[in-house]
Amino acid sequence: MTTLLNLDFPFTALDGLFAPRLRPETATMEWTPRTAIHEGEHEFTLELDVPGVQQQDIELQLEQNQLTIRGERKPSAALDSYRRVEPSFGTFSRTFALPESVNKDAISAKLEAGVLRVTLPQREETKPRRIEVKASA
After folding, report:
1. Which class for 96: exposed (0-12), middle (13-18), buried (19 or more C-beta within 10 A)?
2. Taking a C-beta distance cutoff of 8 angstroms, is the pair 60, 93 a contact?
3. What range defines the domain where residue 40 resides?
4. 13-to-16, 22, 70 alpha-carbon distances in Å
């Protein structure tokens, strides 16, 4: 039987553009989670979209002024048993340069509903403060 309409055509033609990358040094697939950075009054917040990544598969490492976040999303079954796979599986690594104002001893991270939220509080001495103007006597 000849099929006139190939419903997978738009996807198969573009697969090379959006396919996960293979890391030659480890022979594992690599993907990049989407990240949002928010600057609040007293802290910065990084939010990484990591659905399907388990807490034990995430590692944060602080070295000098760089925060590196690594992790891995594992498929629930062998990849060759799927007919089509759109989510990316494998490892990821993101490195962020931290400003001098971050209190490195107070960095915290929380994984909730597929979002890794890393809070980077500012040091007290770098926070803006109000200076009162006094009248002369």
Report:
1. middle
2. no
3. 28-125
4. 7, 19, 31
Provide the residue-wise pLDDT of the chain in tens; the chain has 137 residues: 333 443 444 444 444 444 555 555 444 578 899 999 999 989 999 999 999 999 999 999 999 999 999 999 988 888 778 788 788 889 999 999 999 999 999 999 999 999 999 999 998 876 677 888 988 87
CATH code at position 54: 2.60.40.790
DSSP 33-90: --EEEEE-SSEEEEEEE-TT--GGGEEEEEETTEEEEEEEE--SS-GGG-S---S--E
For 17, what's the count of Cα atoms within 13 Å in the CB-facing half-sphere? 5
Distance CA 83, CA 53 (A): 22
| Structural domain count of the chain | 1
Identify the helix (H) or strand (E) that includes residue 22: strand 21-23
What is the sign of the dihedral through the CA atoms of 55, 56, 57 and 58?
Answer: positive
Residue 20 falls inside a structural domain = no
